[in-house]
Amino acid sequence: MIKAKKSLGQNFLIDKNIIDKIIKTVPIANNEILEVGPGTGNLTREILKNNPRKMFLIEKDTFLAESLKKIINEKVTIFNEDILKFDENSLSKNKIIVFGNLPYNISTEILSTWIINLKNDYWFSDLILMFQKEVADRIIAKFNTSAYGRLSILANWRLNINKICDILPESFSPRPKIESTLIHFTPKKDFAEIKDPTNLEKITRIFFNHRRKMLKKPFNQIFNGKTDLLNKFDIDLNLRPQNLDFETYYKLTIEYENLRS
Is residue 12's pLDDT more than 60? Predict the structure, then answer.
């Protein structure tokens, strides 16, 4: 019996109905697939039944990576590596469909890293990823809501986001204490032309550092009281960070880059 490792945030998906729902999200046949954190291979087996052209597995746990060799075929390549240190662009010249039951402790870091490292072109066609529900709520949050913040703004910059379903703890072994959520991401064709995504991270970090405070202090910290921007983007400094929509944060980041260039 394979024991989950708490240090790696392992919770293995065992619910056949949820696995079926994941499989039906996108066409798998003749596509190239990446599965992040395949664990015991329950989802891997079902993906292989749907005849992908190629399949890549990235599993950090050495014991699990060895165990997965029992169920793979000539189409499958296993990488016993850390996803945060892996270069996904090296896998293929074709667009890849990504499935991932992401470890709760690094899920936001994985998604953020992928977005920040994107070039103009995308290395994937779809991301079908599972998150802790609280994290998922932040990803899909709209402005003027309490969950809206840095993660929502970063994710919506380059990705279309569609929530598929919430998943109960009993769908996993061992059972986590919280619910999970499955989200489907696809690339955006039109997005704000931010030169350096770390600037978007910086702008949102400063604004949301005190999310309950008014915009005046963070705005002045970034733009030194440049009041013409207030009229340009119709910003009321008496509002709070959650009251500015996605596009305003992207425009402010571009203005910040222009002022520094």
Answer: yes
